[in-house]
Amino acid sequence: MSNTDSLRQDYLALRDQVDSAQLATVGCEATPEASYAPCIWREGYCYVFLSELASHTQNLKLNPSISLLLIDAETAAGNAFARKRISLFGKAGIVARSDDNYKTVINDFYRRFGDVMKLIEPLADFHLFRITVHRGRFIRGFGQAYELSGDTLEQLIPVNPGNK
Q1: Which fold has domain 3-163?
Q2: Given 22, 46, 50, 80, which is the most exposed site by the fewest CB atoms within 10 A?
Q3: Phi/psi of residue 38, each to 5°?
């Protein structure tokens, strides 16, 4: 396996295996607000299932700009400063319950998160959001930063001090 293949596999493994994303949304008066939500990746999109009781949901309804942080577990990292992580930037939009894609993605949530979905999925205040990411960065460890490019953000370009 080439180094490029190994790098891409590390990136996709982290992206697809994390159960949640840390969210940064824009709150009232344009203040940043951090939170988190369980997530699913499907066909290059990130999906989150959010309650209207959460301020991040209200924020996204007013301003769809969002940043996501996917990060390796602290226990999996040899050093807290070198945890594998992916920072992504994009736009979020609600997927209507009547949309053909809604049931497919919700089924993925049931498979991944189990019985809790039986409790929350029928609640009218929960909405499925599809996040379309348009740029990002993967940090594999010390001195290993990569810009994400391409239509599905699966091409990794090394970052060095000369091409910030």
Answers
A1: Pnp Oxidase; Chain A (2.30.110)
A2: 80
A3: -60, 150
pLDDT tens column, 85-105: 999 999 999 999 999 999 999
Q: What is the pLDDT of residues 33-90, one digit of tens each?
A: 999 999 999 999 999 999 999 999 999 999 999 999 999 988 887 888 889 999 999 9
Where in the chain are the domains?
3-163
Judge contact between 82 and 64, C-beta under 8 A.
no
3-state secondary structure of 34: strand
Instruction: Judge contact between 21 and 92, C-beta under 8 A.
Output: no
Q: How far apart are CA 90 and CA 23, in angstroms?
A: 11
pLDDT of 162 reads 62
Place of tokens 């999906």: 47
Tell me, what amino acid is at 102? Y
- The span from the CA of 19 to the CA of 33, in Å, is 20
